[in-house]
Design goal:
By secondary structure, the chain is mainly β. The protein has a domain of 188 residues. Helix content is 5%, strand content 59%. The chain has two helices and 19 strands. Strands 3-5-6-7-8-9-10-11-12-13-14-15-16-17-18-19 form a 16-stranded antiparallel β-barrel. Strands 1-2 form a two-stranded antiparallel sheet. A hairpin with a 5-residue loop joins β17 and β18. It is globular.
Length: 273
């Protein structure tokens, strides 16, 4: 799936999760992952989801998977990474692994107490390089987080979140280690709770980038559009040939990027409770 490239590293390090005031009634692949701007609601009681992306091959008018893409390949086209996400039986994300092809290169591990995240640790080959401490309001809603460097516990960055009356995050404000604002996202949702637009503004409050997402009647993404204000350039991802498993979760899809400039065959596998 399409993601905003220039903020993906920052987001993956400091973003918070859905409010954990009450136990989740559904499994959401969203916050704490690269799907923070386009949360995917997974049907059924999902224990694990694995996503792999391949270069697509077109032969005899049929699209099939070719070579498994590397992290570098996926970054170059602005795609979400190969990944594995793990959830507990309440639908809460507990671990998020980033893959290079199928090799784990980074693990993000959440610590949960009394239904709330109290810490996330980020590791490269079992060596911690970053951690965050979430912050909550008096109602138990997540309102931000602060990131630190391990061992020395020095401040790295900070996030402030604004949510709507349903607990959906609609604004993400990013700050550096000097507590200076570096930019922010403003998000819009439709009446079904799908994130349909994300606008990024820089520290001077100038709009720089817009991501628009279109869904089918079942909540599956069928198109994504981007617009870069500086270069006035556009991008478009069309998703086709969606296949679903017996629970209604997608297991195969084909992405046609910028009218065939790139083509990706994506697949997911699930383990259910």
């Amino acid at each position: 799936m399409k993601k905003i490239i220039f903020l993906s590293l920052i987001i993956s390090l400091i973003i918070g999760s859905w409010s954990n005031k009450k136990p989740l009634e559904k499994t959401v692949l969203g916050m704490w992952t690269d799907y923070y701007l386009i949360p995917n609601t997974l049907k059924g009681k999902v224990k694990e989801v694995k996503e792999l992306n391949y270069w697509a091959i077109e032969k005899d008018a049929k699209i099939t998977k070719g070579e498994l893409m590397t992290k570098k390949d996926l970054d170059s086209v602005g795609s979400t990474p190969n990944l594995i996400a793990y959830f507990d039986d309440k639908g809460t994300l507990t671990r998020y692994n980033l893959l290079d092809r199928e090799n784990v290169i980074q693990s993000n591990i959440g610590t949960i107490e009394n239904g709330k995240y109290i810490r996330w640790d980020y590791k490269l080959k079992d060596s911690a390089f970053y951690y965050i401490i979430p912050e909550y309001d008096n109602m138990g809603y997540l309102i931000g987080s602060t990131g630190y460097r391990p061992k020395v516990d020095t401040l790295v960055n900070k996030l402030i979140l604004t949510h709507d009356s349903k607990g959906n995050f609609i604004k993400f404000e990013y700050f550096n280690n000097k507590k200076q604002k570096t930019g922010y996202h403003v998000c819009s949702l439709d009446d079904k709770g799908n994130y349909i637009e994300a606008k990024y503004f820089n520290k001077s409050d100038s709009l720089t980038f817009t991501l628009t997402t279109i869904y089918d009647i079942n909540g599956n993404i069928i198109k994504q559009k981007t617009f870069n204000e500086r270069t006035k350039s556009t991008g478009e991802w069309d998703y086709k040939d969606l296949k679903l498993d017996v629970h209604g979760n997608w297991i195969e899809t084909y992405a046609n990027i910028d009218n065939g400039k790139y083509k990706i065959f994506a697949e997911r596998s699930y383990i259910y409770y």
